[in-house]
Amino acid sequence: MHEFKWTVRVYHEDTDGGGIVYYANYLKFMERARTEYLRELGFEQTDLLEQHRCLIVVKHVEVDYIRPAVFNDQLLVTCELTSVQRASFCVRQQVIRVDKPPEQHNNEESGSCLPDVLLVEGHVRLATLAADTMAASRIPQPLLNVIRSPD
């Protein structure tokens, strides 16, 4: 599957007392990107619930915080499918600070945009649950067909 990309800007509400993005907010950015990824594939989570009685939940997450983001940074959040099983699938996600104009970087010497910088990398296992029982259930076949299909 291709790498899905979604952009978000950092607001004051995303930062902590030190002016950097609060660590838990990266999980929110990644959650939103996964939702948009599913939407791009043609699946609304509300439709999965209504039509297939299925919920998609986070089963496991590993996050490596590499560098901080700060107020007004433009971030690119990626989502790439790495594996699929009967009742779960895994994605690799990255949060990247994207180029900004030089006037926003106090970088008068180079006069050019700074390169994109990897800030956070995560690996997320998502499980499907039967909405009625909250027990593990198979990924609905229409979703499975799409995420298993080659680009």
Protein described:
- The chain is α+β, with helices and mostly antiparallel strands and about 150 residues long.
- The protein has a single domain, classed as Hotdog Thioesterase (Thiol Ester Dehydrase, Chain A, Roll), CATH 3.10.129.
- Helix content is about 25%, strand content about 35%.
- The protein has helices at about 25-40, 45-50, 140-150, and strands at about 5-10, 55-65, 75-85, 90-95, 115-130.
- A five-stranded antiparallel beta sheet has the order 1-3-4-5-2.
- The radius of gyration is 18 Å and the shape is elongated.
Q: Could you list some keywords that capture this structure?
A:
alpha+beta, Thiol Ester Dehydrase, Chain A, single chain, elongated, five-stranded antiparallel beta sheet, 151 residues
How many structural domains does the protein architecture include? 1
CATH topology name: Thiol Ester Dehydrase, Chain A
Using the 3D structure, state the CATH architecture: Roll
Strand content: 35-45%
Indicate the overall shape: elongated
Structural class: alpha+beta
Radius of gyration: 18 Å
Assembly annotation: single chain
Largest sheet: 5 strands, antiparallel
Distance between the termini: 5 Å
User: Can you identify the CATH superfamily?
Assistant: Hotdog Thioesterase
Percent helix range: 10-25%
- Global mean pLDDT: 90
